[in-house]
Amino acid sequence: MVRYDKDERRRILGEELTRHPFFTDEELAKRFKVSVSTIRLDRGVLGIPEVRERTRAFAQEAYSTLKSLDDQEVIGELQELVIGESACSTMVVEESMVLTKARVARGHYLFAQANSLAIALVDAPMALTGSVELKFIRPVQLGELVVAEGRVAKRKGDKYWVNVVLMVNTEVVLRGSWVLFAKDREDVWETEME
Prior knowledge:
Blueprint: H1 6-19, H2 25-32, H3 36-46, H4 51-64, E1 77-82, E2 86-92, H5 107-120, E3 126-136, E4 145-156, E5 159-168, E6 171-183, H6 185-193
Antiparallel strand pairs: 1-2, 2-4, 3-6, 4-5, 5-6
């Protein structure tokens, strides 16, 4: 990356954090080839809080709009949610999530993060996964931050088509397409009684 003068670096830093709000100061310092303290100073001048504060603010707003899941059913930390449109969540891969020998995340944790994000996008009291087409691109290592981004591609009646991508930094690690069904709670009870 090219070295920027102070004003140009701050302008680009602001744009980067608008597009990728979960970058840490350390990651930004590497990208801009400056010290972490320079990034902190630039953020301070721009009035951009540290990553923990940015994450907390996004999460509070997102959880308040949840409709099809309870807070505890979301795998990872919900960062952004516009029901029926788009959503974002984050998850740090912890020791309990990795395979003992390979030291990479178990696939079901990544699937669970993506699946719960897809369900959260459905505008109904309950959503059920109908089908999923999924591709794991690369293993995720212990300690990596996984950012999931989901978008509703199409909606027809009670059927939703949702695309979800999981990334580490800007590298795609999982990609999937979901077909989900919006249900009222009464619909589910009628099915169980039959």
